Amino acid sequence: MAKQGKIEIDSERCKGCLLCVRACPRSVLKMGATQNASGSYPAEAARQEKCTACGNCYTVCPDMCLSIYEQIAVEQAA
Questions:
Q1: Which residues pair with 49 in a beta bridge?
Q2: Is 18 exposed, middle or buried (0-12, 13-18, 19+ CB in 10 A)?
Q3: How far apart are CA 1 and CA 18, in angstroms?
Q4: Which of 28, 32, 36, 52 has its CA 20 to 30 A from that of 16?
């Protein structure tokens, strides 16, 4: 079973450098369409379901505005 992840982005802290977008191997992130208070277009999780919590985006973010969570899969008993 593949790992499932969840990304949270603090859009007010994000300056829109998009390093995280380039670092994501699964194309989970994209540039957002809405400006934040500083006039930047922050990254957003466009395909959250494809995230594997690899941490690449978190590692390259200079402003530390990303939080990555590994989801725990709950298997149902048959």
A1: none
A2: middle
A3: 30
A4: 52
Burial (CB count within 10 angstroms: exposed 0-12, middle 13-18, buried 19+), residue 14? buried
Q: Give the domain CATH number at 65.
A: 3.30.70.20
* Whole-number percent of the chain with pLDDT over 90: 86
Task: Residue count of the chain, please give it.
Answer: 78
CA distance 10 to 60: 15
Residue 76 lies in a domain: no
In a domain, 78, yes or no: no
Domain count, the chain: 1
Which pTM does this prediction carry?
Answer: 0.84
Q: Is 55 domain-assigned?
A: yes
pLDDT at 34 over 80: yes
